[in-house]
Automatic annotation (TrEMBL):
This is Kynureninase. Pathway: Amino-acid degradation; L-kynurenine degradation; L-alanine and anthranilate from L-kynurenine: step 1/1; Cofactor biosynthesis; NAD(+) biosynthesis; quinolinate from L-kynurenine: step 2/3. The lineage of its organism: Bacteria, Bacillati, Actinomycetota, Actinomycetes, Pseudonocardiales. Its cofactor is pyridoxal 5'-phosphate. InterPro entries: Aminotrans_V_dom, Kynureninase, PyrdxlP-dep_Trfase, PyrdxlP-dep_Trfase_major, PyrdxlP-dep_Trfase_small. It comes from Pseudonocardia kongjuensis.
Length: 403
């Protein structure tokens, strides 16, 4: 009888299987299951980086700014917007870190709603989101209303409807929850926030390059996210930020700087913001740090976000099948939604004492992600993870929990 958990038929039927060879091999790594925290480097990134230093920076020198570097934040923003965010051109920039862009966008949002004194988020939001919103509230005398959410189930439209009011300036959530991978009903939540007259800021860190996003269709106001998770931009690659086109004329960047000026080289007194989303920039664009991201976006363009999501759904379903057969009998619980329409790219497994397994897992070449108190996040990356790799990693985990 064929083994129903055999990974081979899944890999044989995977239209994206060949992308795996286009990532740098990692000697000794049996299973890399942390693509949701730091994506693997595309193999071409090394040459592209070396070529950039040698040919672009090296030979063009300061002329490079006029030959494309200066406009890179909007050009790359448009590219990510088109490939992964459902955003028409002219609304997205690449800059800063996610934390800094969240701060800039959330500050701009509350300034657009004078007289309203509340920001709504949830208890399960990522720590940086909570810190940013608390910091803005403290500085401006606002209140953060924190909806208590079940980390495994995430935020619901009903909860948002009960929390917003005429006092709400801004509503901000993650689209995909970092702990369990739940997917929020973004169109419904956006509508509810708008009905209350509030603006909405989505954190797309765990969505971009994994779960299709439709910012324009949702009617979202603002969004930010990182590029080093499923977008494989490398450690510290800059973030992206989105401002809906019809807000652009009014939105004010709280971190004014010369790169966001209308006339950066005029060196005049007095700040006048650039037209369009460029006004959200502050200082010199991190050109060098976007080189691997550019390689990765070429791969995403080739694969298509629809196929990426389809493989991601198959990977998480397979991870759940393996977990049910091998781990649940040993006291492991699945702490992620089981409805594939509500689950993003990773699956979280919990069992008391999981922290103690990280050492043995790493020693065996298996690298999952750990989130305390006792959650192992299994984050396969659709372009670089095979079903055989997932099978190998979870079978090591099985032997550890059974042993
Ligand atoms: C990874 C992540 C971040 C990261 O913020 P940085 O400023 O890039 O460190 C922010 N928000 C969420 C939801 C994340 O998952």
């Amino acid at each position: 009888m064929p083994d129903p958990l055999d990974p081979a038929p899944h890999d044989a039927a995977d239209p994206l299987a060949s992308f795996r060879e286009r990532f740098t091999p990692a000697p000794g790594v049996v299973a890399y299951l942390d693509g949701n925290s730091l994506g693997r480097p595309p193999a071409a990134a090394a040459d592209r980086l070396a070529g950039f230093v040698r040919d672009d920076w090296g030979t063009r020198l300061i002329r490079g700014w006029d030959e494309g570097w200066w406009t890179l934040p909007e050009r790359l923003g448009d590219r990510i917007g088109g490939l992964a965010l459902g955003a028409a051109p002219g609304q997205t920039v690449v800059a800063d870190s996610t934390t800094v862009l969240l701060h800039k966008l959330a500050t701009a949002a509350v300034a657009l709603r004078p007289g309203r004194d509340e920001i709504v988020t949830d208890t399960g939001n990522f720590p940086t989101d909570r810190d940013v919103l608390d910091g803005i509230a403290d500085a401006r005398g606002l209140t953060v209303r924190r909806i208590r959410t079940d980390p495994a189930a995430g935020i619901t439209p009903e909860q948002v409807a009960a929390a917003v009011s005429g006092r709400t300036a801004l509503v901000s959530f993650s689209h995909v929850g970092y702990r369990s991978g739940w997917i929020a009903d973004a169109p419904a939540i956006t509508r509810i926030a708008h009905d209350a007259g509030a603006l909405v800021l989505w954190d797309l860190s765990h969505s971009a390059g994994s779960v299709p996003v439709e910012l324009d269709a949702w009617g979202a106001d603002l969004a930010a996210g990182c590029t080093y998770k499923y977008l494989n931009g490398g450690p510290g690659s800059p973030a992206f930020g989105y401002v809906r086109a019809d807000l652009l004329a009014d939105v004010e960047n709280p971190v004014r700087g010369w790169v966001g000026r209308a006339d950066p080289f005029g060196m005049t007194d007095g700040f006048a913001p650039a037209d369009g989303v460029r006004r959200m920039l502050s200082g010199t664009p991190p050109v060098l740090a976007t080189v691997p991201l550019q390689v990765s976006l070429e791969m995403l363009a080739e694969a298509g976000i629809g196929a990426v999501r389809e493989k991601s759904r198959r990977l998480t379903r397979y991870a759940l099948e393996l977990a049910d057969a091998w781990l649940v009998p040993h006291g492991v619980a699945v702490a992620s939604p089981r409805d594939p329409d509500r689950l993003g790219g990773h699956v979280t497994l919990t069992r008391p004492g999981f922290a103690g397994l990280l050492g043995p897992l790493h020693a065996a070449g298996v690298i999952p992600d750990y989130r305390g108190p006792d959650g192992l996040r299994i984050g396969p990356a659709p372009l670089s993870t095979s079903f055989a790799e997932l099978h190998a990693g979870l079978s090591v985990l099985r032997s550890l929990v059974a042993g």
